[in-house]
Amino acid sequence: MRPAGFAVYAAVDISAGRCVRLLQGRFGTETVYSDDPVEVALGFCSAGARWLHIVDLDGAKTGVPANRELVLEVVRRARCPVQAGGGMRTLEDVEGALAAGANRVVLGTAALEDPAALGLACERYGERIAVSLDATGGEIATHGWTVGTGVPVLEAVAGFEDAGVCMFIYTDTGRDGTMAGPNLEGLARVAAATGLPVIASGGISSRDDLMAVARLRPQGVAGAIVGRALYEHKFGIAEANRWADDAAAGKDPAQP
User: Fold this and answer.
1) Domain 8-248, CATH among 2.60.15.10, 3.10.350.10, 3.20.20.70, 1.20.120.450
2) Segment 191-208, tens digit of pLDDT
3) Per the residue annotation, which of 56, 134, 172, 209 is the catalytic one?
4) Which residues pair with 139 in a beta bridge?
């Protein structure tokens, strides 16, 4: 059953201990925004973020939790809910993040490559397990988006849903970090293919982008992850929350 609400997730991506954003997920294109990702994450909470989306990018690529301690520090100290991902390859990884206080763990590579581990994680913590649908050309990409799998996104959705996950995070990798607008058509297709809530990620740069995603709430889109637009001050957390609330409620923000 899909939730009634819609939330904006502030993205905190960590590589080599720093808070960065990649262009289309490509390593080597990092823009460094801070040497202290914990401070950035806690600042988003103080600014009114309703959720944090924190990812160990190096862990996602290699499976080695290079930035795990920073992720867990954010999880332990944040005053808003946190979903954590990146390099979560085993049940022990999942349990460690949840024990530290993560509200939700996001699985990507492991969800596709280790169905048994995914099934066990869902059996124990299903309401707290999300799967990332990282789409490159309509197919799932893994290992920090560096490996194509040939598995169509919508085909993967059915298998993950059967495993018992609670939510999907859909990213068009070609839009991520570009601020070129979200892939609304791809997002709508994923939402139509599942009874689970879907969080959108990639390309959001403006009020119009964010509101266009939030207007898909009746179709099952439950949130939007925003990164570069926040870091480059296109808008702030409070504005994003207000616009998303208005759009999800079917209200034009120009109205009182």
Assistant:
1) 3.20.20.70
2) 999 999 999 998 899 999
3) 134
4) 136, 152
